[in-house]
Amino acid sequence: MRDFEQPGRSLAAARSGMAATSHPAATLAAIDILRQGGNALDAAIGAVAVQGVVEPGSTGIGGDCFALLSKGGSADIIAYNGAGRAPAAATIDRFRQLGVECIDGQSVHSVTVPGAVEAWGRLVADHGRLDLGAVLQPAIALARDGYAITPRVAYDLRHAVGRLSADKAASEIFLAEGRALEFGQLHSQPRLASTLEAIGRDGPDAFYRGTIAEAMVETLQDRGGLHELEDFASTQGEYVKPISSNFRGRQVHECPPNGQGVIALLIMNILSRFTLKGDPLGIDNLHLEIEAARLAYAARNRFLGDTPNAGAATVTHLLSDRFADELAARIDPKGRALNLPSFEDVVHKDTVYVCVVDKDRNAVSLINSLFSGYGSGIACGTSGVLFHNRGQSFSLESAHPNAIAPRKRPMHTIIPAMVSEGGRVSMPFGVMGGHYQAMGHAYFLSRLFDHDLDMQSAMALPRLFPLPGTRIVEVEQALLVRHGAELERRGFEVRAAARPIGGAQAIRIDWANGSLIGASDPRKDGCALGW
Question: How far apart are CA 204 and CA 202, in angstroms?
Fold first, then answer.
């Protein structure tokens, strides 16, 4: 129980339904959809669509989507991979002909075909109670009528002025005469509203075919992109089989590769070889978590990508007891492990995560992303679509498992998750923050199950993140003051985190009491709300 004399948030509690998102307008939209007869899936899609309007630096219809769905609380979980693919013309040889040596985050070549809209349409049609048009109404209204800029959105926008200024359409949509909008200012996106309205009326085909697709392809081709109309028209996500592993007596469920959910489970498997006790922020506990993450991310670099090598056999190997034992044995409890593989990487990207549970205990864990803050910074002025830069994750080394290739999906960082106990889902949860997410899952669950914290207290604790393939550890200020010198002594290079690390939401289903308990990260603007 929190100390009510100290700053902080209370857990939310409800009976009939609950939503937790990183923006209050999205949480409210989800609750409204539930109260209008929609189910958890309808509410989650409606919420994330709202976030694509009011939190546009983190998500939108120009991005990708992954989802987990439990019907009635069953541990037989449904997973959907809504990752978009590279253009059919995207080959390493073609990039070499163009003189492209790496895929920069503001390059048009970082734009893969957005997969979110296809995922939304498929999931609502297969599992929702409402039609897509009704689900998108809150987002359409906010885009057309306007919304007030919240504090974290204003903060993110200030950091993105340079990126947005480089693109005329993006600057016109998101900046006011070249300046960032401030907290409390009103903003609208009428062209995005029209695009969302067309999607609601005509389904995903309105986005992937016809005039909207033509405008997007023209925008990308004008900047040198290899995208064609057929790349958009052929977009299709897929249902996939979730993967899972046991952590402290609970089963943790993730989406399989091309996402990094298996790496979250690997970190937990390594930590399971140790006993974390006492202060959750004690230096010895943090040291174990840092080293487990460094080893697991090194494994991610070797194995993960949208290739046959990242299939079931690789997942089995990564989650085997033998592999966890081998990695755990490499950890020196008092010093940094040496000779980790080098890792080309980009960190701290922007994403939104939503979880919803309804009165029938259908539970949804859903994540939608533009990757970097404001994605590629490239917008289609006609449609109002801001494009993500997920293709930045691709490698241009032909032997790399994440090497770019025609219609290939990049390795993804976004990973919705669920916990089940006794054959029933007990908690949909997710952690935002790009590459941090895999460590963030383990970090969050360890605080719940190793240290018996409540969800809100666990989210509020300061964070750190070892940048993959390096000895650099980014540390939020409270931990920097407390442990910075000792981490340096143990062989790490410590840096103050440039921005707050990640964000999180979670809802716990209390089956015994018939209640729902929700939490939302204070690093964002959002909240958990129910009734």
Answer: 7
Q: Of 314-328, 337-351, 476-490, which range is least confident?
A: 337-351
Beta-ladder partners of 380? 385
Angle (nearest 5°) at CA 300 between 279 and 109: 120
Structural domain boundaries in the chain: 12-239+352-393, 240-347+426-530
CATH 3.60.20.40 is held by the domain 240-347+426-530:
yes
Using the predicted structure, report yes or no on whether residue 309 has a pLDDT greater than 60. no
Alpha carbons 235 and 222: distance in angstroms, whole number? 21
pLDDT tens for 261-280 read: 999 999 999 999 999 989 99
Is residue 61 within 8 Å of 216, Cβ to Cβ?
Answer: no
- Which residue type does 167 have? D
At 388, the amino acid letter reads H
Element (H, E) at 94: helix 92-97
Q: Which residue has the tokens 């219609």?
A: 407
What is the band of 346 on the pLDDT scale with cuts at 50, 70, 90? Answer: very low
- Whole-structure pTM value: 0.94
Contact 530, 518 (CB under 8 A): yes
The separation between the first and the last C-alpha atoms of the chain, rounded to the nearest angstrom, is 21
Which residue type is seen at 136?
A: L
Q: Which of 98, 99, 64, 94 is nearest to 81 (CA)?
A: 64
* 405-425 mean pLDDT: 93
| pLDDT tops 70 at residue 341 | no
Extract the tokens encoding 5. 């004399």
Question: Which amino acid, residue 6?
Answer: Q
Tokens of 469: 């393939």
Confidence class for position 342, pLDDT limits 50, 70, 90: very low
- Angstrom distance (rounded) from CA 437 to CA 415: 7
